[in-house]
Amino acid sequence: MLPNTGRLAGCTLFITGASRGIGKAIALKAAKDGANIVIAAKTGVPHRTLPGTIYTAAEEIEAAGGKALPCIVNVREEDQITEAVDQAVQKFGGIDILVNNASAISLTGTLETPTKKVDLMMSANTRGTYLTSKICLPHLKKSKIGHILNISPPINLNPVWFKNHCAYTISKYGMSMCVLGMAEEFRGEVAVNALWPQTAIYTSAMDMLGGAGVEKQCRKTDILADAAYCILTKPKSFTGNFVIDEILLREEGIKNFDPYAVAPGHPLLPDFFLDVDPDTLAMKMEAQGASPTFKEGKMQDVPKRDGPDKTKPDGPERTGLHVHFASENATGPVANTFKIIKGAINEDVVKSTQGVYRFELSGEEGGTWYIDLRNKGGSAGSGEPPGKVDVIMSMSSSDFVKMFSGKLKPTMAFMSGKLTIKGDMALAIKLEKLMGQLNAKL
């Protein structure tokens, strides 16, 4: 890991969202040099599910060797930013470094993203970064160090990063555009750069988005803290860069990245906005025992499309359960997959899942298929499912077969744009358990 050099001793860092996660990790790294840290975050009292407050973070920072100023700051509120900046200047004499880390996320499609979520992401991510930078800049221009660091991605115009979560992507790219503009506007006065992780980073947000077991596929926040430290100790001439943590640290001589891994040796998930070959990655992950999960997060209900009534099951009876399969005599990979799915349905699966899934498949054997794991004894087949639909998954028929046979992991399919999901994402996670049971049979 990257050693401290003492070069940030006495420097004042204004870090948004520093009460936990990446922001706090950067603060603690600087604190080891004896830096002053302004903890600009919303959490003044303990959150019901998330760890840490600005005050507990302050205790950790001072224990690490730094000085802390905890400030209640919602970056959507200009007055709160201004007040915190004034307090920082009064207490520490100025501001040398700004880290725009605070961010909101909702990985939902255009029709599934409520307006208030759109407003939150745009105002916290893009507007919050712009405002905080604007208010800090007069002080940063007076500093010999003068640096702004945004935790935002390189701007990648591949449509795959827009199609599944357009609002979130726009808001994060807004932060990156601040880097492009301000780096040129203040060249020679203040350095402005962006930092983004090569792989998923384990934080409280990742717990909510990634599901159970995701931590093994992540790196610790330490890697971003080390990369940020490296950037912030460079001269002002280092500006306008979109830095990837692993690439930078390799250039700095770091060769062993195991200390940064939550589970050393375990394959890692790539982060958003960085193009990789998802099929190749999924095969590597599977070979090493990884089990990527769907993202969690309740979305709007999906209305059921009009279709024939299939509430009355027919077909073969097994162990007292009626299982409907509309294409019993159909052949082909998709039909065969659904036959195996049908055979795996039992009372325990239906009881533990309680969801109805519709699959809109393209290509050979394309059309509408479903798995009902809520009504009566459960059912599976082609055509419209019975009752209310909880989750709609759209993909090619060949990728569907790969996904259920374990050759294409759901997370990789989703991130690469091969799989579109609408509806209840928590129920999408539950479906993965059934996939695990089927892998050996397909």
Automatic annotation (TrEMBL):
The keyword Mitochondrion applies. Coiled coil: none annotated. Signal peptide: none annotated. InterPro entries: HSDL2, NAD(P)-bd_dom_sf, SCP2_sterol-bd_dom, SCP2_sterol-bd_dom_sf, SDR_fam. Residues 288-318 are annotated as: Disordered. It comes from the Eukaryota. GO terms for cellular component: mitochondrion; peroxisome. Residues 346-435 form the SCP2 domain. It holds the Pfam family SCP2. Its main location: mitochondrion. GO terms for molecular function: oxidoreductase activity. PANTHER family: HYDROXYSTEROID DEHYDROGENASE-LIKE PROTEIN 2. Belongs to the short-chain dehydrogenases/reductases (SDR) family. This is Hydroxysteroid dehydrogenase-like protein 2. The gene is HSDL2.
